[in-house]
Design brief:
The protein is α/β, with parallel strands linked by helices. 37% of the residues lie in helices and 18% in strands. A 5-stranded parallel sheet has the order 2-1-6-5-7, sandwiched between helices. The protein has a two-stranded antiparallel ribbon with strand order 3-4. Helix 4 (96-102) links the parallel strand 5 (83-93) and strand 6 (107-112). Residues 87-89, 113, 116-117, 132-134, 136-138, 140-141, 144 line the site of the ligand CN1CCN(c2ccccc2CNc2ccc(C(N)=O)cn2)CC1. This is tRNA (guanine-N(1)-)-methyltransferase. Keywords: Cytoplasm, Methyltransferase, S-adenosyl-L-methionine, Transferase, tRNA processing. It catalyses: guanosine(37) in tRNA + S-adenosyl-L-methionine = N(1)-methylguanosine(37) in tRNA + S-adenosyl-L-homocysteine + H(+).
């Protein structure tokens, strides 16, 4: 799967995306992440990428030309237009269902806004979907883009070491995850539930399902309504 990220801060991506699972997936060529610097496409002699908003008001708006030309540099010799996602507070809030849907795509272009956002004509001209990672305000679209890349990439076949890691995920079967324990058996006077040491796999499975339900009821009862 290929991600092309249109951003003013490509270095952020180089730093984060070469680490851990995503980094290994890139080495294995299962995932490709390209950060394209919008500023490189500014035709302005001072490489300006923003300007004052028509109608006044505070802040600056990202000008359309550099973004459009950066976009063209990606799609100009592609047989078909990849899906373009704009990370913004106006978007539909990302959830696992949407993540699963996006993981089926071969190629995604992610547009990261800054300042007060991008000129509306860019959204009309090239953006297919607006996605928000939650109802809170950030300084830019880069962190939302990384959240999207991480959540989608881990569902691409062979990125995760084993499929089952994918199955028992919170928000995967619609429930929160059961509690996890590892050695030592006793820590700060707290012991591991004996069922987990019983070697009785059916009972352990039963206990884990029970814990997931209990936790979901306590912490996220809203998730129970959505379950089919
Ligand atoms: C004061 N506003 C200035 C304009 N800005 C903005 C507007 C449009 C696009 C990008 C941004 C960058 N910020 C983001 C981005 C995403 C999210 C999210 N929830 O996914 C939250 N914030 C929003 C903040």
């Amino acid at each position: 799967m290929r991600f092309d990220v249109l951003t003013l801060f490509p270095d952020i991506f180089h730093a984060v995306m070469k680490e851990s699972i995503i980094g290994r997936a890139q080495e294995k060529n299962i995932i490709e992440i390209n950060a394209i610097n919008i500023r490189d496409f500014s035709k302005d002699k001072h490489k300006k990428v923003d300007d004052y908003p028509y109608g006044g008001g505070g802040g600056m708006v990202m000008t359309p030309q550099p973004i459009y030309d950066a976009y063209l540099s990606i799609v100009k010799d592609l047989p078909h237009k990849p899906k373009v996602i704009y990370l913004s507070p106006q978007g539909k809030v990302l959830n696992q269902k949407k993540v699963v849907e996006l993981s089926k795509e071969k190629h995604l272009i992610l547009l990261c806004g800054h300042y007060e956002g991008v000129d509306e004509r860019i959204i009309e001209e090239i953006v297919d979907e607006e996605i928000s990672i939650g109802d809170y305000v950030l300084t830019g679209g880069e962190i939302p883009a990384m959240v999207l890349i991480d959540s989608v990439s881990r569902l691409v076949p062979d990125v995760l070491p084993s499929e089952d890691a994918y199955k028992n995920e919170s928000h995967y079967n619609g429930l929160l995850e059961y509690p996890q324990y590892t050695r030592p058996y006793e820590f700060m006077g707290r012991k591991v539930p004996d069922i987990l040491l019983s070697g009785h796999h059916a009972k352990i499975e039963e206990w884990r399902k029970e814990q997931s339900l209990k936790r979901t009821l306590e912490k996220r009862p809203d998730l129970l309504k959505k379950r089919d």
